[in-house]
Every structure is written in C-alpha cells, then in structure tokens.
Specification:
heterodimer, A: 331 residues, alpha/beta, Rossmann fold, two-stranded antiparallel sheet, 15% strand, B: 390 residues, 7-stranded mixed beta sheet, 6-stranded mixed beta sheet, 13 helices, globular, binds thiamine diphosphate, binds iron/sulfur cluster
Chain lengths: 331, 390
C-alpha cells in the first residue's frame, strides 16, 4: 500500500520528482546561479539517453574540474565557438551508426550570440537533429562580466562601464530569435528558469522534434547582474512580467505562441533589483532618458508579441512551483 | 592493377577504401578535388557515409572531432588558410587524443596570396600534437592514407597526411589502388574505447588544474614518441600485405659509402632522385627522405646520418626571421652525435616555384662551404627584390 503522510501521496511526489538528473550536485557554481538551475532542469527533462556538447563558459568550468565531473550524461567540451559543429559531428556519427540518442548543445550567450554564431547558423541551416540550449545571462561571465551582444542596452559590465561620457552598454541586445527564426528551423523558443514547467515542456518539445531546435533560456547571474542569489527567481520572473524578456515560441520562423502577462509591471521594478542598472536611478537627465528608453523597449516587446492578457498563461506558475526551488537552496 | 589517376582522386579512393562514416570538409585549392571525389562516391551510393558540408574549415575540423569522439571513423582535408583557420580545433583534437585522419594538400600561406605549393601550412601545425607524415609521391599518398587510420586508431592520436599541392594533388600518373578486401583485412572496424555513450557516460574535455596539466601533456608527448613504433610497424605490415612500403620514419637511398647526403621532405625527393642520375660525375650522394616530421625521429635520423661529412637539408618551409623549419630540427637532433655531419640549410621552391634539376649541382657545391651554410634561400632572383633586401 502506498504510504500517506498528512494527505500527501509520497508515490505521487516521487512521480513528480525526475527519476534522472543529468547534472548532479557538487559543482562549483555561485549560489543562486541561474544557469546551474537551468542546466539541471534541462537535463532532467531530457533524461539519460543524451549526449551533451558544451561550449566554453561558466557551465563548462563549474561542472568539470578534473578529476571530478557533475555530469551523469556523456558530455564533451571542445572549444568556445564550435559546440554546434561538434554536435553536428556527433549527430552525423550517431546517424551513421544507427543510434537514436539525442544530441544537445549547451552554451552561454557569448558562445551563442557572438563567437559561435557562425557554427550555430551552419548547424541550423543543415537542420541537424540537435537541441541547442543557450543559457542567456547577458554577458561573458566566466571571464569576469564583459559585455556581449546579448547584454541589454544601458547595462553596466566591466567593458561597458558607466563613466563620465557613457551610460553603460551603448548598443541594443541582439535580436537573436529573429536570426534563428530566419533559418526556418522546426522549433525555437525562449524560456526562463523562473518558469520551470514551461521550460521543461519546451525542452521535451525540442527533443521530440526531428531536426534542429533552439531554446534561449534567460538565466540570472547574481555575480554579474549584482543581485542577491536568493532573488534569482524573482529577478527572472520580473524580466518576463515587465516585457523585458518575452517568452515566445516559433515554428519554422513564425511566432506560434507567447506567454501572456496578466499584470504588466514597470521595467523599473526589474532593473532596480540589479546593480548593473543602478546608474539609471541617479538623478540626472541621462538616467531618466535611458530608463525611459528601456521602458519603451519593453513596451515594444509587449506590442509586437502581443503579450498583454487578462488570463494568466497556464504555465505562468506565479511562484507555485518556483518558490520551493528558489533562492540559495538549489544552487 | 595500375590505373592512370589524378593524385586527389587517388587519395579519395584510398579514403573510401578505409570506410569512413563521417566526412566533413570545405573547399580550398588544391585540396578541393579530394572532397569533390568523395562527395561523388557518396552521391552514387558507392560509399555509405555521412557527408557534412560545413560553413568553414573551423567547423569541418569540429565536426570530425565530434564524429570521432562518438566512435566513428572520420575524415577531413584542407590546405593553407583552411589549415590555419582550423588551428584551434587541431590542437584540441590532439589534446583530447581523438583518432582521425586529415589530408593537408600543402599550399603556401598568404599573404602574398599563392595557390601553389610549399609546406608552411602544415609546418605551422607541427606543435599541435598531431602525427605528421609527408608523402614523396602519389602512391605513397594512397598507402600512407590507409596506414594513417591504423596508426591513428592504435595510438589514439590524429594523423595529418601531407601531400604537396598540385605537384602531387593535380598530377595524373599510373597508380596501384588496393583492393577493398585487402584494405579491410589491414584495417578492421574500429571501436573507440572512450566514445561518447549514454551507457558509459564520460566527461571529455574537462578543465585540468595545474596539479594534472603537466602529466596530461607528458602523456601526450610520450604517446607521440611511442607512435614511432606504430608508424614503422604499420609500414612493415603494409609491405607484407601489399608489397610496397613508404619508408617508415626516415629512409635512405644511395651508396653506403657516400659522405654527402641531401635530406628532404615531400615530393622534392623525386626531383632529387632524377637529378642524381643526371649528374653522376658529382660523386656518391645519399638521399634521405624524412617521412615523419611528428613524431620527430631523432634516433632514426642519427642512424641515417652516421658516417656523413655533410648533410644538405632542402626544404619548402621557412620560419621568417629564423631559419628553415626542417633544417633547425635536423641540426638540433644531429648535434647529439659523436661526430655529427656539417648541416647546410636551404629553402627553395616556395609558393610553387619549380625546383629544377640544376639546383642539384648548386647544392652539392654549396656543401663545400666552410663554415656550413646556416640557412639560405637558394633560388632568390636579386633582380626582383628591393635594393636593401639583396
Ligand atoms: C577563442 C576564445 N576566446 C576567448 C575565450 C575566453 N572565454 C572563455 S569563457 C568566455 C566567456 C563565456 O561567456 P558566455 O558564453 O556568455 O558564457 P557564461 O560564462 O556567461 O556562462 C570567454 C570570453 C576562449 N575560451 N576562447
Ligand atoms: S558567475 Fe554567474 S553564471 Fe557564472 S557561476 Fe556565477 S552566477 Fe553562474
């Protein structure tokens, strides 16, 4: 008989717990690291029959310090900018050998938006049967927080500092999803570690597809963004609720679904929690202008993707299953 | 049976005989004919293989890395700028100890732009940790390609087969293409112990802290040195099976009492053989063919040079501001001998310039120089260089 405790079904809980963890505890990520959580969620959703090609970056470094490794799935790290091509080779080999194992790439935004964009484009164009997951923490974190083409406009990094003549990063965040969409791959989506059930569903969708799939996972970095590790989930959720990071799905380059926002929050609520945007709250004309500019960028996202809604999105868990996983405990 | 066939097409046939499962390459002259031929075999169904048509040489090298790490026999080829674009991946493949084969159709590196042959491209990769074998003729290119897979798979080291662009790749000559059954017997199906496999999950390419890095490099270095035995054994076994050999690590041709020798690498050997016949009056001369540049066969080379008074090195690889790359390495290796020969270093034929037979008497005469010629580019035409460079 199934043991019961205070009305909770242990078997049901067991059932909800993933049977398999591809990325195990004991790695060296900072407390509250968004991509550590993200990689764990993604590997749980994929299961054991997968091979991972990891681009150079925080995830690779904090999981693989010889002679230890946190990976329970076969894992290969070659270089910063070639993970999609390595994955293409793995997939071609599996095909030649008649094996069904799923190939997954994991890379940071630097490896994806910038230095690895060419090999990613090649992999997508050839439509390899590979799921590419980019953990987007919006800067080169592993080398100490330098700006990438994914860094939001006006954010401070060590190479886009606030100075006498600058208000942080001068350029806009690259619209990578549009570039991915232009490859007309079967499936592409954005997700965030703040909404794990949505993330898992998208991972499962991505691995079920025959062909290339791409997932952009917004992943807070307490160290680089300058917020408390315990607030990572809150920060990530606000990025969605302000329209700053839209959650969308694309099929063959066409928007096929969005996570609607029931109550749109002002971007200042999101920005205020992070040191990288503190200069926008100074009492100056530049600060007010940039803050206004970022608000307009978020409004633009809401407008073009049609994010405003009365009803909550079914997978907008509003903390239901994120709070339990939140903060320092899952680091 | 002999078949009149172009060098590139012959190498493609040899690759196909090795039954690769994944091929990735990117076009560049003079390598292109090799992959074009392979693409045709695949399109015609004569070769069952995944051809990944990548967007760069960087990705070509990365694709074969991933494929070989997954346990498939993999192949790629390139030249000059393509080899240099691969640089980071080539070091990575070797450091990960992944067995695969790459053909370098040797070509000069721009600038100035030159589509023609010299060996600066592969020589620039000599420290990448690959085995590097140089082919003197197209029969050797076929045979070395087949041997290369055996060597790679037994040593878990990548092998670069270097053949001179145009001089070999685009030359049509009668060649012996081995039979499939013979190659199958020489090269049985391969099982890579460390292959990526969910049943035996491994982490490949981890961060290695200072406590382990030296040992990792040492093991790689030792593996390359030990590979000398595999290179010799592969050539000997190949001879037993096919009746031909390529000359192991280093081979000597000529009268045993000759006190002068010319050492070279690649297709120049053929020119030198003809030249020696052309000028018998210049006395007995040994020709030394250095086939393996990495591992560098210092012991075999010392043996080959025993009893020589003068060794002339003729090469197509220049380290600007230094000397010839082969000359430097040969001189260093021979300096340990009891009575080493004087080593005279020469480069010629850069960027595809012909090496005429008349070079030979010039070289033999230069060997009389005291002190020996440290290094000289022999075929410079002073009328084509600026006053201050003459
Ligand atoms: C060719 C090359 N250039 C630079 C580096 C140094 N480097 C290593 S990781 C990294 C940043 C990684 O940033 P990202 O991809 O955003 O991942 P994150 O560390 O933020 O997760 C850089 C610049 C490298 N390893 N290789
Ligand atoms: S620096 Fe950021 S991305 Fe890297 S481990 Fe720390 S929190 Fe994670």
């Amino acid at each position: 008989m199934e043991p019961k405790r205070e009305g909770i079904s242990v078997a049901a809980l067991h059932h909800q717990q993933p049977a398999f963890r591809g990325l195990d505890a004991g790695h060296m990520a900072c407390p509250g690291c968004g991509q550590a959580l993200g990689a764990r969620l993604v590997t749980e959703a994929i299961g054991p029959d997968a091979i991972i090609a990891n681009a150079t970056g925080c995830l690779e470094v904090f999981t693989s310090m010889w002679p230890r490794s946190s990976w329970r799935v076969p894992w290969i790290h070659s270089l910063f900018e070639n993970a999609p091509a390595v994955a293409s080779g793995i997939e071609a080999a599996l095909k030649a050998q008649g094996r069904q194992t799923k190939v997954v790439v994991m890379g940071g935004d630097g490896g994806t938006f910038d230095i690895g964009l060419q090999s990613l484009s090649g992999m997508l164009e050839r439509n390899h049967n590979v799921l590419y997951v980019c953990f987007d923490n919006e800067a080169y974190m592993n080398t100490g927080v330098q700006r990438s083409s994914s860094t939001p406009h006006a954010a401070m990094t060590t190479t886009s500092p606030r100075g006498e003549t600058r208000m942080g990063k001068r350029h806009l965040k690259k619209d990578l999803l549009a570039i991915i969409g232009a490859h007309r791959i079967p499936y592409a989506a954005t997700a965030t570690v703040a909404y794990p059930s949505d993330l898992r569903a998208k991972v499962r969708r991505g691995i079920e597809i025959e062909g290339a799939a791409f997932l952009l996972v917004h992943s807070p970095c307490p160290l680089g963004w300058g917020h408390d590790g315990a607030d990572s989930i809150e920060v990530a959720r606000l990025a969605v609720q302000t329209g700053f990071f839209p959650i969308v799905e694309m099929e063959r380059g066409v928007v096929a679904g969005v996570m609607k926002i029931r109550e749109v929050r002002p971007v200042a609520d999101y920005l205020r929690l992070q040191d990288r945007f503190q200069h926008l709250f100074e009492d100056s004309r530049e600060a007010r202008e940039e803050l206004q500019h970022l608000q307009e960028l978020a409004d633009h996202n809401i407008e073009v993707y049609g994010l405003r809604a009365d009803e909550p999105h079914p997978r907008d868990s509003e903390g239901a299953d994120t709070v339990r996983r939140g903060g320092m405990r899952w680091s | 049976m002999l078949e009149a066939i172009e060098g590139s097409a012959a190498v493609a046939r040899a690759v196909a005989l090795c039954r690769p499962q994944v091929i990735a390459a990117y076009p560049i002259t003079p390598q292109t004919h090799i992959v074009e031929n392979l693409a045709r075999f695949i399109a015609d169904g004569a070769l069952r293989c995944e051809l990944v048509s990548v967007e760069s040489e960087f990705s070509a090298a990365s694709v074969v890395l991933g494929a070989a790490a997954s346990g498939s026999r993999a192949y790629t080829a390139s030249s000059a700028q393509g080899i240099l674009l691969m640089t980071e991946v080539l070091y990575n493949i070797a450091g990960l100890r992944i067995p695969l084969v790459l053909t370098c159709a040797n070509r000069a590196v721009g600038a100035p732009v030159s589509a023609w042959n010299d060996q600066q491209d592969s020589m620039a990769m000599r420290d990448a940790g690959w085995i590097q074998l140089y082919c003197a003729d197209n029969q050797e290119a076929i045979d070395t390609t087949i041997q290369a897979y055996r060597i790679a798979e037994r040593t878990e080291l990548p092998v670069m087969v270097c053949m001179d662009g145009f001089t070999l790749t685009h030359t049509l000559e009668p060649l012996e293409i081995p039979a499939q059954e013979q190659v199958d017997a020489f090269l049985p199906p391969y099982r890579f112990e460390r292959a990526l496999d969910p049943m035996h999950p491994r982490s490949i390419g981890t961060v290695v802290p200072p406590e382990y890095y030296t040992e990792a490099r040492y093991a790689h270095h030792r593996a390359l040195l030990r590979a000398q035995d595999e290179i010799v054994a592969a050539d000997a076994d190949f001879e037993a099976a096919f009746g031909r050999r390529c000359g192991g690590l280093v081979s000597v041709d000529g009268p045993s009492d000759a006190r002068i020798a010319i050492l070279s690498i690649g297709s120049v050997i053929g020119t030198l053989l003809d030249a020696r016949d052309e000028y018998p009056e210049l006395g007995p001369v040994k020709l030394i063919k250095l086939r393996s540049m990495r591992p560098f066969p210092a012991d075999a080379l010392q043996k080959a040079c025993a009893g020589l008074s003068d060794l002339i090195v003729l090469e197509r690889a220049l380290s600007p501001g230094g000397i010839g790359i082969v000359s430097a390495e040969v001189r260093a290796a021979l300096s340990e001998m009891q009575s080493p020969p004087r080593v005279h270093g020469f480069a010629a034929g850069l960027g595809g310039r012909d090496m005429p037979l008349e070079l030979y008497p010039h070289l033999i005469a230069a060997a009389k120089a005291r002190p020996p010629v440290r290094f000289s580019i022999v075929d410079v035409d002073p009328s084509k260089v600026a006053e201050e460079d003459r």
